[in-house]
Write a structure and sequence with these properties.
The chain is mostly beta strands. Helix content is 4%, strand content 42%.
Length: 267
C-alpha cells in the first residue's frame, strides 16, 4: 500500500489516546502501547501492523478490533508486506526477516546474511522483491521472500528508507550515502544490480525517506534536508532531472492512488 499509509494510519488511527482535530478520522484502540512502525492493508477490512518488540497485529473488521500474532521475537519490526491473508513477511532489526504462510500463526526466519537494521520492503506481483537497510544494504528475492541474496552491504553509514518494486524487473530505492547526501538507486533486473544517480533537494544535502514511482519515468522522492526542513521532488525522465518543493518540516512518506492524486505526510 506504500509507506504513506504507514505514516497516516499509524500516526493518526492506531495510537491510543490520540486526539484528532479533523473530521473523518477515528481513533482506534490497537490494544498495545508499543510504538507501531508500519501498516499494510489488503482491503478495507483486513490489515496488519508491525511494531517494536516483535509486535504484529491483525484486523479483519476495518480496524475496530486487533488481535496480536506471536512472532516469537522481541526484535523491533520496521516494515511488512502481505501477498494475501495467509502469506506475508515482516522485517526489522539485526537483519531479521520473518515469513508466514498461515496468516501469522507461525513464522519462519529467512537467512539474510546481514545484521543491519532492515527498513523497507517491497514486492512485485510476480514475487520479485527488494529490501533496503542501514549500511546501504540492498537485498533481493525472486521467490516471494523465502530466500534472499545480497546486492550490496557493509558501507560506512547511510541506508535506504524507501523501496518500491515497479514491476518484476524495475525497482527504486531512496536513502542516504556515507557523507549524508540523499541517494537514489534504480534497478532494471529485479534488484540484482543498481545504478545510483546524483540527487539533491534543490542542491541541498539530506536524506530520502520515501519514494513512489508511477512509472519508470515519473516518480517522487520525499525527505529531510540537512537543516531539518523537508522536500518533495518530482522527476519525469527517470531520475535524471528533478523539480523540488520545500517545506518547513521533514516529509516522511508519499503515495499516489492514481496518476493525478497523491498524499504526503511528515513531521
Amino acid at each position: 500500500m506504500g509507506r504513506l499509509f504507514e505514516a497516516l494510519l499509524v500516526a493518526v488511527a492506531f495510537l491510543p489516546g490520540l486526539v484528532t482535530a479533523q473530521s473523518g478520522w477515528e481513533v482506534l484502540n490497537s490494544g498495545t502501547s508499543v510504538q507501531l512502525n508500519a501498516v499494510f492493508l489488503l482491503n478495507a477490512d483486513t490489515g496488519f501492523v508491525a511494531g517494536d518488540g516483535g509486535t504484529v497485529l491483525v484486523t479483519e473488521d476495518g480496524g475496530q478490533s486487533w488481535q496480536p500474532l506471536n512472532t516469537g521475537t522481541g526484535t523491533n519490526l520496521l516494515d511488512l508486506y502481505f501477498f494475501d491473508r495467509l502469506h506475508g513477511l515482516v522485517i526489522g532489526g539485526q537483519g531479521l526477516v520473518l515469513r508466514t504462510e498461515d496468516g501469522g500463526q507461525t513464522w519462519t526466519q529467512a537467512n539474510t546474511g546481514v545484521l543491519d537494521n532492515l527498513l523497507a520492503v517491497s514486492f512485485a506481483p510476480g514475487g520479485n522483491g527488494i529490501i533496503g537497510g542501514l549500511s546501504q544494504t540492498l537485498l533481493y528475492s525472486s521467490d516471494s521472500g523465502r530466500t534472499w541474496q545480497t546486492s550490496q552491504t557493509g558501507f560506512f553509514g547511510g541506508g535506504f528508507w524507501g523501496a518500491q518494486m515497479l514491476s518484476d524487473q524495475d525497482a527504486v530505492v531512496g536513502g542516504e550515502n556515507s557523507i549524508f547526501q540523499p541517494m537514489l538507486g534504480l534497478s532494471n533486473d529485479g534488484g540484482i544490480t543498481w545504478n545510483f544517480l546524483p540527487f539533491y533537494f534543490n542542491n541541498s544535502e539530506g536524506r530520502i525517506l520515501d519514494v513512489f514511482f508511477l512509472s519508470p519515468q515519473i516518480g517522487f522522492a520525499v525527505g529531510r534536508l540537512f537543516n531539518f526542513t523537508g522536500a518533495i521532488a518530482r522527476t519525469s525522465d527517470g531520475g535524471a532531472n528533478w523539480t523540488t518543493l520545500q517545506f518547513s518540516q521533514p516529509v516522511q512518506a508519499i503515495c499516489f492512488p492514481d496518476s493525478l492524486h497523491g498524499f504526503a505526510v511528515g513531521d
